Amino acid sequence: MKQFLLALALVMAPVAAFTAGEIYLVPHAQSDVSGQSPGLGDLTSLQTIISDVQKKAASGNIAAASARITDFETAWDAAANGMRPLNPTAWAHVDGAADAALHALRSANPDPAKVNTTLKDLLKTLRNPSA
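The structure assignment produced for this chain is given below.
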């Protein structure tokens, strides 16, 4: 019984120390203006694509905007498996906003106001995915 308790203590001590260190010593990620987001990494390239899509849509060129958002979709899908496990909630926020923008642009008769709103929401979400 003493050996069991000693073994248990020897296993529990490092686990408790590492857990405490993780909680109290590791700084938590915060969103900043450089494009870094909590847990998802640098989203600047995706923000740039969406800004470009917004410009094309605002000029009335929905076809070009729809084509350009494919670049976003491809990059987002390629990064999904790496990003989703890091921060599933933030990833889901961006994914939902992306789906809305894609749907608005690719509808049979895109409504320019809805396209503008969904792209604005997507860019806002990319800048702060945890909100």
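Interim note for the steering committee: The first strand starts at residue 36 and ends at 37. Residues 35-127 form one domain.
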